[in-house]
Specification:
The chain has 427 residues and is α/β, with parallel strands linked by helices. Helices cover 38% and strands 16% of the residues. Helix 7 runs parallel beside helix 8, helix 11 packs parallel to helix 13 (409-425) and helix 12 (371-383) crosses helix 13. The longest helix is centred in the C-terminal third of the chain and has 20 residues, at 322-341. The protein is globular.
Length: 427
């Protein structure tokens, strides 16, 4: 393993982050478990950054990929593509967007990049509203709108970005307000921004902020924003790269917790739909999707191999009600972790819904983020046989828990026990 690490450092960028003081190589997986090259077995509570949505080595997906690879792997969007059309039909059907059109990409970054292209072209404006503490990808345009300094290496951008309050409920100037007053204050902030700028193209928002530490506003905030946006013709882009496909348990899409004023104009997705294969995409009303007046294709977006995987994965997810499982098992896991947190002064908050759970750590007796504790818990959990993630806003001090949606009650309890031991050992 040390040899692979040294080789990695010789040819990979210094800024390419690796977890753990002694990075591990994951060689194979099955169900909710993975194994490293040393033979250690782990319960996977991060799923390749929320990407292994159903299960590792799911037979239905493996079979679909193998059979498709035996026929043809790729032809590009210049030719008719049956698996792509079939998956697009399914995605449009479950999207909640009327007269939906679907464009496939290879990642969430590229999906958000495409949504920004569509919105700015449709509105003829390069001004974007984004949320503080947000993360939208790694490309030049998405880095430019990301409201999280830790993931934004440059302020250069083709877009003018204005940041709105509301993505984090328990921090910031409005944290002390009740939910109704919090929403009213954020709406007032939005109206104030709109009075000082040229008309924006769109608001882009994650219903639950992923890299930001699984933070979210009260239900209904984006519906209230939507009423203001509609008055100005401003589009709403829901970044569902991490929240889509039933992960939140209560809803199939994260935006449905904010649905009072109708669906978003555009939805971006990626990660879980491919169960590890590279699928991203944009769903938009036809008039928005069709607004481009120049040629465009995608060489690898919608390639037959990934579309076959996506179709099999989405079918499995729907037929086995994994959204319902995320609601039930996730609810039990959140309550179990909250019971543990109540006994530990270093745990500020356990938040989230479904199988998208954040545990925010602070220095005991303060409200100050504690990134060292987060790193220590990450290490201790791995030593105990559990893989989790981390994130956060001003400082990386939130643990991110996002297992495959097929997680069992017994596995949830096992993971909670390992995490409890890790938390107690570092506090």
């Amino acid at each position: 393993m040390n040899d692979l690490y040294s080789r990695h450092r010789q040819v990979m960028p210094d800024w390419l982050a690796l977890y753990y003081d002694e990075p591990i190589e994951i060689t194979h997986g099955e169900g909710r478990h993975v194994w490293d090259s040393a033979g250690n077995k782990y319960l996977d509570f991060f799923g390749g950054i929320l990407t292994t949505m159903t299960a590792h080595a799911l037979p239905e997906v493996t079979k679909a990929v193998s059979e498709q690879a035996g026929r043809i792997i790729h032809s590009s969007t210049l030719y008719l593509n049956r698996p792509m059309v079939e998956l697009a039909e399914r995605v449009a059907q479950v999207s909640g967007i009327p007269d939906a059109r679907v464009f496939f990409t290879t990642s969430g970054t590229e999906a958000n990049d495409t949504a920004l292209l569509l919105a700015t072209a449709y509105r003829r404006s390069n001004t974007i509203l984004a949320m503080r503490n947000s993360y939208h990808g790694r490309s030049f345009s998405t880095v430019g709108i990301t409201g999280n300094r830790g993931w934004s290496p440059t302020s250069l951008s083709p877009l003018q970005t204005l940041y709105v309050h509301g993505g984090v409920r328990t921090r910031g100037p409005f944290a002390g307000l009740d939910d109704r007053a919090f929403i009213d204050a954020c709406v007032a902030d939005l109206k104030d921004i709109l009075g000082h700028t040229r008309p924006p193209a769109a608001l882009i928002a994650e219903p639950i902020q992923g890299v930001g530490g699984f933070t979210s506003p009260p239900d209904g905030l984006y519906a209230a924003f939507r009423e203001v946006l509609k008055e100005h013709g401003i589009l709403w882009i829901a970044d569902e790269v991490q929240t889509g496909w039933g992960r939140t348990g209560e809803h199939f899409w994260g935006w449905q917790a904010h649905a009072r004023s109708g669906p978003p104009d555009l939805v971006t997705f990626a990660k879980g739909i491919g169960n590890g294969t590279s699928i991203g995409g944009v769903i938009a009303r036809a008039e928005i999707m069709n607004c481009l007046d120049a040629n465009s294709i995608s060489t690898f977006g919608g390639t037959q191999l990934t579309m076959a995987a996506g179709l099999a994965n989405l079918t499995y997810l729907l037929e086995h009600d994994l959204q319902g499982n995320a609601r039930r098992v996730g609810g039990l896991l959140i309550e179990r972790l909250r019971a543990v947190a109540a006994q530990l002064p270093g745990v500020r908050e356990v938040r989230g819904r479904g199988l998208m759970i954040g545990v925010e750590l602070v220095k005991p007796g303060t409200d100050e983020a504690d990134p060292r504790a987060a790193a220590a818990v990450l290490e201790a959990a791995r030593e105990g046989g559990l893989l989790i993630g981390k994130g956060g806003g001003h400082n990386t001090s939130a643990l991110r828990i996002a297992p495959p949606l097929s997680l069992t009650v017994a596995e949830a309890e096992e993971g909670a026990e390992i995490l409890e031991r890790a938390l107690r050992s570092t506090h």
